[in-house]
Amino acid sequence: MGNCLTGDVAGGKQAIGGVQQRPTSTTTNNAAQNDAVDFFFRSRGQYPLFSQIELSLSASNLIDRDITSKSDPMAVMYLRKKDGKLEEIGRTEVILNSLNPNWIEKITVSFQFETVQTLVFHVFDVDTRYHNVPVKTLKLKEQDYLGEATCVLSEVMTKPNRSMTLNLHGDFGAGVSRKLGTLSLQAEETVASKTVVEMNLRSVNLDNKDLFSKSDPFLRISRLVENSIVVPVCRTEVVDNNLNPIWKPVCLTMQQFGSKDTPLLIECLDFNTSGNHELIGRTEKSVAELERLCQQREAINFVYPSTSHGRNKVLKGQLIVDRFVEKIQYSFLDYISSGFELNFMVAVDFTASNGDPRTPSSLHYNDPSGRLNSYQKAIMEVGEVIQFYDSDRRFPAWGFGGRTADGHVSHAFNLNGASYGDEVVGVEGIMSAYSSALANVALAGPTLFSHVVDKAAHTASQSLSQNSPKYFVLLIITDGVLTDMAGTIDALVRASDLPLSVLIVGVGNTDFTQMEILDADKGRRLESSTGRVATRDIVQFVPMKEVHSGQVSVVQALLEELPGQFLSYVRCRNINPVGAPAI
Amino acid sequence: MTKTLEIDIRSAEGLKINRRLIKKKKTFAVVKIGEKSRSSDLDDSGGSNPTWNFKSEMPMKGSVQFISIEVFYRTRCGRDKKIGEARIPATDFMGRYSHEGHLNFLSYRLRDEYGDKCGIVNVSIVVKPHSTETTTMFMASSSSSSSETPSIDGYRGRIVTGLPVWRVTT
Q1: What are phi and psi of A523, to 5 degrees?
Q2: Which of A203, A274, A403, B146 stands the most exposed, by the fewest C-beta atoms within 10 Å?
């Protein structure tokens, strides 16, 4: 309980905003923009009827739930669906010790003109012990509830400044309604852009604002939007006790800084654990001016706004830009359209848990009336999508868990029954290979993925030695419960450094909670039995029953994580689209 | 056969001592192959998630089974105390999935002297192919293998041109 006075300060001192560069991190808070899905629909003439909106949130007069310090608020945004349930869209970061937080993390949502989108916001006070943990993994039930607010997105968009203030209300069971404060939203249209700017900033001769030690300075960079509204964009980490701090490189996308000539407000503040950060100095510069400062090796003096004389006091403290690099961050579509090949591989579950193919209740039921069984439906729907992205339409197809003609149970047999090769052509090829395999292979068990994952990894690693850039996607269509979790995790960890993604499609009604562990979305990286940890999350799980109940489309579910996984592989190795100039 | 390894100890996450996350400690990492070891610089601002980006080249004999990465912290008195260690089997970067020149991004679980989990360390390793010129670090391995001059499969050299020689018998 040593932290009850100050809270977990280390969590609050970290850098916020900017672009993460870890190989394992994928896109965050972006429920709307998915390149792969958009491309698929556009190719069929279905143009998206929405625009991407970015919401910045801030709150004031929140109630205090912490005993000795102020609340550490975080906001979560939900979309209310047709059945009344709330679907989480995104979360802001946690701000320490503040009842008037101005969150930096933005939440992106697609503004669909023709539907009524009800947004629900919940504000929580995050407990001290959760401060150093990635925001995505926080369990909301364990946090203190501070209030909620509801609004309709179109209402926000039609207001003159595109901003709205809502009163927070909440049910604390006391029967008395308290004043819980207000939540403000600011909406902006996002501009997808590829340019990323990376700067190394440092300062010299800053003023000392602390009594017994030196200042703990950090920078806060904000963008000035029309009507002098200030939108915070990013914050550097805090450097303790230093009047000449050197901060870690700051990476901003053009989406965040607007254009190269948009003025940015750069404030240098002294970090205080009470939450009241003191302003040391500020300056207004655009990105182009910062570039010029770097090239000419000049420094800019901070100014301190003074109210009495009407003239700002010019300080001795200076901001220096050591390095300024402009990079282009290519998107998933840039790679695909430049010649990066996506190769799909399919593996079908032939274990006995599916049920005897002759009984109508089996997932493998061969209906004489011609109706498709669950597997065939899954193959057709999924196949449409992958056929679109795979250039040569030749897919290696395997089955696992079945007893082949030679009497042995195989966990990676060729679906087409041939001994020379495992490829089939097109979705029709997969369907016919599946039907013939059903006739020739007896369902057996157990359900093991490791063999097919190893086979896919082997294919992926072979392609590395050739020069043509390829990315592989293994589709496993299965009915459920894994027998060998440890072996599967080992195989996935071994394959996590290769250009491979594994999409697991679940048919049937079993409980798929095991799969959620493999799909490492909660932030826990997979760990093998040998002590190796997965380099990145390469698994994605799609339950078909959610697709059939209409909650999410096949395309959306399948392709949701693929661009992120692809980019995480390609960017950390500095691989550019074919023919693009290397930067 | 001795190979040269280019190892980059990039960062660590979730460093713990006695099962609690460390705060405000200066940490550094040491890579050891056999008897040789190289240490990184101190990271004094990361706390339990330090970033070192320490690149070094070390020779590795063919008989080496694993290399070890150790993470230490420096006490105020100046002593170095070990937080944990990870062992990287040689097959993870030289083996069925990675050929020479491929940039491997690997992560391993650190365990302390009692065997408890105490964090994860992220490294990247390239096994340098035998060549006289040194490739610049961390250009994509795929682009470095697309050489200017065409090379015959597996031969890794320039095309040999030969001149036919006639023997003129007089």
Answers
A1: 105, -10
A2: B146
Closest CA–CA distance from residue B170 to any residue of chain A (Å): 51
CA–CA gap between residue B20 and residue B28 (Å, rounded): 18
Please state, in angstroms and rounded to a whole number, the distance separating the CA atoms of residues A248 and A15: 9
| Spatial distance between the Cα atoms of A339 and B59, rounded to a whole number of angstroms | 38
**Residue B4 predicted with pLDDT over 70:** yes
Tell me what the mean pLDDT of segment A423-432 comes to. Answer: 88
pLDDT digits (tens, 9 = 90+) for A335-345: 877 778 888 89
Identify the residue whose tokens are 């959760």: A130
Tell me chain A's radius of gyration from C-alpha atoms: 27
- Coil, strand or helix at B138: coil
ipTM: 0.71
pLDDT tier, A456 (very low <50, low <70, confident <90, very high otherwise) = very high
Nearest to A527 among B23, B109, B141 (CB): B109
Phi, psi of A122 (to 5 degrees): -120, 135
pLDDT at A570 over 90: no
- Give me the mean pLDDT over the A172-195 stretch: 73
A340-351 average pLDDT score: 87
Task: Find out whether the peptide bond into A446 is cis, omega within 30 degrees of 0.
Answer: yes
The long-range contacts involving B17-24, CB below 8 angstroms and separated by at least 24 positions, are B17/B73, B17/B83, B17/B112, B17/B118, B19/B116, B19/B118, B21/A132, B21/B47, B21/B48, B22/B47, B22/B48, B22/B73, B22/B83, B23/A10, B23/B47, B23/B48, B24/A10
**3-class DSSP string for A9-70:** HHHHCCCEECCCCCCCCCCCCECCCCHHHHHHHHHCCCCCCEEEEEEEEEEECCCCCCCCCC
Helix (H) or strand (E) holding A400: strand A394-400
> Dihedrals φ, ψ of A36, to 5°?
-65, -40
CA angle A31, A485, A344 (to 5 degrees): 55
Statement: residue B136 has pLDDT above 50? no
Q: How far from A205 is each of A216, A298, A468, CA to CA, in Å?
A: 13, 15, 53
Asked if residue B141 lies in contact with residue B126, where contact means CB atoms within 8 angstroms, the answer is yes
Reduced to 3 DSSP states, what percent helix, strand and coil does chain B have, rounded to the nearest 5? 5, 45, 50
More confident residue, A11 or A290: A290
CA-based torsion, B94, B100, B101, B102: positive or negative: negative
CB contact under 8 A, B21 and A132: yes
Binary contact (A497, B141; C-beta < 8 A):
no
Nearest residue in chain A measured CA to CA from B47: A10
**What is the SS3 assignment for A388?**
helix
To which H or E segment does residue A314 belong?
Answer: strand A313-328
Contact A23 B105 (CB under 8 A): yes
> Quick one: A343 exposed, middle or buried, by C-beta within 10 A (0-12, 13-18, 19+)?
buried
Looking at chain B, how many residues does it have?
170
CB contact under 8 A, B97 and A498: yes
pLDDT single digits (tens) A202-229: 899 888 888 888 888 999 998 887 667 7
Lowest model confidence (mean pLDDT) among A15-19, A186-190, A307-311: A15-19
What is the C-alpha to C-alpha distance for residues A28 and A102, in angstroms, rounded to an integer? 19
> Both tokens of residue B7?
């190892």
